[in-house]
Amino acid sequence: MAAAARPVVSGGAGRSTPLSEPELQHLRFLRRLLALPRSTPAATILAEAGQPPLHARWLRQAARLWNSLVTAPEGSMPRLFVQAAAAVAVDCADVPPQRQPWAAQLAHSLRAVGLTFEPLHMDKISPDSAQQATLRLHLARVTQETPAHTRLRHYFCDVRPECCSLDGYGRPPYVTEVRERRCRRGLTELRTGMHWGAEEQGRRTGTPREQRVCPHCPALDGPGGIEDTRHILFVCPLYAAERERWPELFHEFLGLPPASVPLSAFFQQSNTELAALAAACRKKARDAVSPQ
Ligand SMILES: [Zn+2]
């Protein structure tokens, strides 16, 4: 029984350690399900799916297992088992977490996400609290440790600031409102920051950010600058016809400098129209690079 519990409680500790194979499999499954680009950051994949990290689910299941054991009748095998597990969990603070008895690993995992737990007390654990505390810590790390001009900063701070809190975390409506994956591909790319523009293409080739300038502006008498999501949506003359085709998407933001347009508000408009705009812009750029 302890062997069965061990994989459940492992992974609930801090996330400075590399992801385990089950966590990588979980991310690969979600990424393919949502048709996200291969280089999508793990936190973005989870947020687009509205899923907590897998280790949050493990901790929730571990709490349920613990509760079933400590509420078993006095003298029963489950009760004797958990009492023995709690007893051997004492005085192992100097042992590496992965080598501790499973009850000590559970305590370590709960403390790592800010919850108080003492195995010998035989108290029940709130499964919801365990999962939410883990997700809260995950989101705090994502938003606090993300440098400027990264895909994560773009997604969590500019596009979806609401999902940095537990109340706002969840699958974004566009995933279900634009069900055909090929129809939402352009929108997905602009939202996640992994778009067709020079900012992202230069990131993949290691080009310094200041050199990731728009290749279209010089020939179109455009202002130039780094070809990021804002440049594509609000600045570049390459997409002038697309802006005129969906004027209602830009009406609210007319007169605002591109850097001041709240991307979160822009992307909360009609998802079908946003997806159509993004698809048209994506095709325009590809045709411009490779004229038919
Ligand atoms: Zn341009």
Automatic annotation (TrEMBL):
Region feature Disordered, mapped onto this chain: 1-20
Protein known as: Expressed protein
UniProt organism field: Chlorella variabilis (Green alga)
Lineage, uppermost ranks: Eukaryota, Viridiplantae, Chlorophyta, core chlorophytes, Trebouxiophyceae
